[in-house]
């Protein structure tokens, strides 16, 4: 993730992210450069593998997310 990216809020409701998208989101959550504080995933049908990837990102010490 670019250190110049200042994205703080991302709304992904109703878009059913794929496993690959969840992997990318997890890498954003783990990035020390990420400023993401608010991630909306309302009304999505996430696969188990996507949930596992996101969970790992949320558990990372670099994760700054405050609202999911």
Compute the number of helices.
Answer: 2
Number of domains: 1
The pLDDT mean sits at: 95
Pattern of helices and strands: EHEH
Rounded to an integer in angstroms, the radius of gyration calculated over CA atoms is 11 Å
Based on Cα principal axes, name the global outline.
globular
Q: Walk across the major sheet and give the strand order.
A: 1-2
Q: Output the structural class.
A: alpha+beta
- The total strand number stands at 2
Helix content: 25-40%
**First-last Cα distance:** 20 Å
> Residue ranges: pLDDT <50 for 5 or more in a row?
none
Question: Could you describe the largest sheet, including whether it forms a barrel?
Answer: 2 strands, parallel
Strand content of the residues, in percent? 5-15%
InterPro entries: Leu-rich_rpt, LRR_dom_sf, NLR
Pfam family, one: LRR_6
Keywords: Leucine-rich repeat, Repeat
Condensed summary:
By secondary structure, the protein is an alpha+beta fold.
